[in-house]
Design a protein that fits this description.
Elements: E1 22-23, H1 29-35, E2 43-44, E3 57-61, E4 73-77, E5 86-90, E6 93-96, E7 111-115, E8 120-123, E9 135-136, E10 146-153, E11 158-165, E12 184-185, H2 189-207
């Protein structure tokens, strides 16, 4: 784990900070083979990307009552970011789908799907990097200004997930991100649908 003075500002003191992915014991050889096979049309992580705290972003506590993440934190740009810019990698525990009951990743709010065919995901719930603080745009802005997109790490020869500023050509939505603006993505309908179903089940349980 990095020394305290190399951690990003406002990083939670009890949460391990990762500069490279960690790997779950749930990964089997076929998972690892898929993880280390480069797909066509996948972008490389820019070679000059630093390994450690990202100077393009800062973790900032949110104290706006109308913000859905009020009382928590968000990720904000420290400089103007042009459309299509690679911001940072989403780092956490790389894992495979689990048959355990309960699945240790099933209710995580930080679990991203990386490779669907082999059920590989990245969960930054218990350890990760600054990217875990990126919020959904709903209730904050009219549309997202960034997106999750798969990347290839040429140094490690493996697939991963990156955060990119939306490009200009994406339905004209890519306007860039200004210094001081919150970096916002769309978590997707699947994320909110799953949580709606979970909340509904909990409400039903309370009525029993």
């Amino acid at each position: 784990m990095p020394l305290k003075d190399t951690l990003p500002k406002n990083w939670p003191p009890n949460l391990p900070y990762l500069t490279t992915p960690s790997y779950s014991r749930s990964l089997i050889p076929t998972n690892l083979s898929a993880l280390r096979t480069k797909p066509q049309d996948i972008a490389d992580i820019p070679p000059n990307t630093p390994r450690g705290p990202c100077n393009l972003v800062k973790i900032t506590p949110i104290a706006t009552p109308t913000h859905p993440a009020n009382g928590q934190s968000g990720l904000f740009a420290t400089k103007d970011l042009k459309p299509g810019t690679f911001i940072l990698r989403y780092i956490g525990e790389v894992h495979a789908s689990s048959d355990l009951d309960p699945d240790p990743h099933s209710e995580s709010n930080y679990d991203l799907s990386l490779e669907r065919e082999h059920g590989i995901g990245i969960d930054a719930d218990k350890k990760g990097n600054e990217a875990r603080f990126i919020n959904d745009y709903r209730g904050v802005a009219e549309r997202p200004n960034a997106e999750f997109k798969e990347v290839w790490d040429e140094k490690r020869k493996e697939r991963g997930m990156g955060v990119w500023v939306l490009p200009e050509g994406k339905s004209g939505k890519g306007k860039g991100i200004r210094k001081g603006e919150e970096i916002l993505v769309s978590y997707g309908r699947g994320f909110w649908g799953a949580r709606k179903n979970t909340e509904g089940a909990r409400d039903r349980d309370r009525c029993r």
